[in-house]
Amino acid sequence: MRSGDDPLARAKALYEYPVTRERTEDMKRLLDRSAAETAAYAAVTELCRYLNRWDNEGPAELERLEPIIRQALSYDPNFYLAHYAQGFLQRARGAHQKALDAFEETIKHAPPTFSRVFAQKGEQLLYLGKFPECIGEVNRALEINPNSQVRGYYYWVLGRAHFFQGDYETSTQWLQRSIRAWPQVWYNRAYLIAAHALQKQDGAARRVRRAFDRQFEGYSLARVVRNEEDATPCDNPAVREGRERFHEGLRLAGFSS
Hints:
Serine Threonine Protein Phosphatase 5, Tetratricopeptide repeat; mainly alpha
C-alpha cells in the first residue's frame, strides 16, 4: 500500500457525509480494497513464519491460508500483494513453476519501486535450477533499491545462487554481506560455514561456527535438512545437488547428524 493511501480511513471519512448511491459505491470499493490488503498482508505474514519454520506448522497451515489468498483476489484480482502471497504459498508446496508465475503476475500489478518481488522471482528461478537467471533478477532488485531495508535477503539469495554454482569465493562475499545486514536468521550463516569448509578455510569455518552456536542453539544437520524439506521441498536435480554440497560442508565443519 502506498504511503498515505489508506482505503479504510477514506471509507470511514465518507461515512460522515450524507448517504448517496454514489457515496456508498465509493465506500464499497474502498472497503473491498481494504479487505484485500488485510487478507494479503495476513497471508504473507503467516507464510513468512511458515517458510522460516518459526511456528513449526505443518501442511495444514497452507490449506488454511489458501482461502485467505483467494479471498484477497476475489476482492481485487489485480492486487499485487495477493499474487505475491500466492507465490509464497506455491513455493512452500514445492510447486515452483506456479510460484514463479505468481511472482511474475505480481510484477505486472506492483508499483515499480517494489524491488523485493524481483528478489523473490530470483529465488524462485533458483528452485528451478536457473542460477544465472536468479542472479540477474536479484541484481535488478538491487538496482531498483540498493538501500532496501531487506537487502540482507537479497544478498542471501545471491550467496546461495553462487554457492549452488560452485563459486564458493563469490558466495562467501555475498553471505558475509547478508549476515551483516540480516543477522537474525540461521541459514545465511550456515551456508557461510559450509562455503568456508568446502574451500578448506578451516579457521574461518570454526569462527563462524562459534558465532552460529552462540546465536542458534541445537542446530544439527538433521534439523537443517528437515527445515529445508519442510519449508521448501524441491526435486530439481541441480538444487538437490547444491543442497547435498551444503550438507557436506556442514559435516566437514563438525555438524552432527
